Amino acid sequence: xxxxxxxxxxxxxxxxxxxxxILILFTFLFGGQLFSQQPVNDTKDSDIKNYKEEVFIRxxxxxxxxxxxVWFKVYTLDGLTHxxxxxxxxxxxxxxxxxxxxxxxxxxxxxxxxxxxxxTLPDNISSGNYLIRAYTNWMKNFSxxxxxxxxxxxxxxxxxxxxxxxxxxxxxxxxxxxxxxxLPQGDIYNSDGNQVIKRSSAGDNNKVINYKxxxxxxxxxxxxxxxxxxxxxxxxxxxxxxxxxxxxAKSGVVNSSGLSSFYRTGSVDSRIHRVDGPENLAExxxxxxxxxxxxxxxxxxxxKADLSLSFVGKTTRCQFTKTDEKGAFNxxxxxxxxxxxxxxxxxxxxxxxxxxxxxxxxxxxxxFKPAExxxxxxxxxxxxxxxxxxxxxxxxxPFRQTRSDESTNVIPDFYGKPESTIIMADYIxxxxxxxxxxxxxxxxxxxxQNGKHDFKLINKFRGQPFENKPLILVDGxxxxxxxxVLSINSKDIERAEIINTRxxxxxxxxxxLVSFITKKGNLGVMEFDNSIFRQAYEGxxxxxxxxxxxxSAAATKYKHIPDFRNTLYWKPDxxxxxxxxxxxxxxxxxxxxxxxxxxxGISTDGKTGYSTASFRVK
Length: 618
What we know:
The chain starts with a helix and ends with a strand. By secondary structure, it is mostly beta strands. Helix 2 (15-30) packs across helix 3. The chain contains seven helices and 34 strands.
């Protein structure tokens, strides 16, 4: 394989990583034998198991007030070449307190090696320094020391400050001590009190991006348009295409050290310390919901059992899989946000079982701790303005649309376009669902056998009934008790969709399909078996748009809703063109203040850069 890659005339330094990546993809797609727990003898097998990813985070600023939103961007990189890589499509991010208790947990969907999202700080969070850690599912196979860590500071203005320390004279009074003299994200220490060594991802000048930030003017007035051009070049002055994040925030909440956030936590030893077979799969297409199917009485695994995962709703989204010898299963999902899911065996004859889901977030923690939190008297005036700004914005937030979920990925019904769709509102109201089936649904009928009703479908091509039962769904969930289905009040049904051809999916064959969608679409029209696994589940966070008002029109410019944004602007997805340039524009708020611009990013070949600029709103 390596010889083939060389024929493609790829850079020599990328060949080992690319070869490993192709082997990983091949292994995930065509077999799991390489992930056995047997000793590794083959070099390629060892390379696959030890393939390493890196994750990096950029936040919109360094200091926050309790209850505020933290905006961030994540990057995924190849751990060998330190270049952007899109192996994993999900990044896990956690906000940890000093006891490693996760105050917030977010799953972030990535596209083209980066993604962005946000989380809200708890209102009752204590003042202090907190760790943000980030990792992929694949990175869970390695030491937690290899995760990415970043420190942020939080100030709660409504709590007692008796527990907050004042820095001694020997300490610098610069900032809230989230920053050391050399680190842009804040000092991190291990349990012995020693500072964790940082290794820069950019080891020489050839891996550095220079950013030039050009504003159309140095000072602005309230609600004035601000235009900015960013130029990215290498050390020789050549333009560079790069993926950037741009943040503009009050200077009192930004700590600018002039160094990039593309660093790695841990020792200077870059060797990989993982020797076991991987237990956590790389999420190549989406978030993996995994778990086990076991018998309640004996706790024994149910082997080779067919399972379905369904999302409750008006769109029928089902997946099917089979458990392995240990009763384990995996479903790859692309749905975002909160959904109600149902997992159950396909066979109605299986009973007395339980389903246990694996925790997607890591339950092991490193010994890393953030630096001690100190108040900085030199910033009190600026911090007070930030606190006032947060309170004003909280009061007036209900009167404006501050965020919008961007749900661009519309997932259709898993069976595609049905043969027939019957809209109940188009017909006279019938008294029962049994009558609806008899009078309205083409090629569908019920048959009573042994005191129970069965659904039957007519084969579209043969004109004769199928021999086996069809798959019946209600609000996207397979239901095998047809008596319960027929007991649904016909007034609650919105539509019925029918496929009267044999349907093949994931090794399963169904003799047709009938999907009933209720008006509420929440599966509330029938009693559900309590033994069936049904719960709310949070997928990747839907991408949110940062609130940036447009004051170009007089109607909005003179609107009497105060604008006291602490983060004036956040653009996580700016891409420079072939000329190395990118342009943005936004509007000043109502508050006179000094603002700090921070630009940071990475190019496709791993060059990184960090730059700052400032301006004032009078």
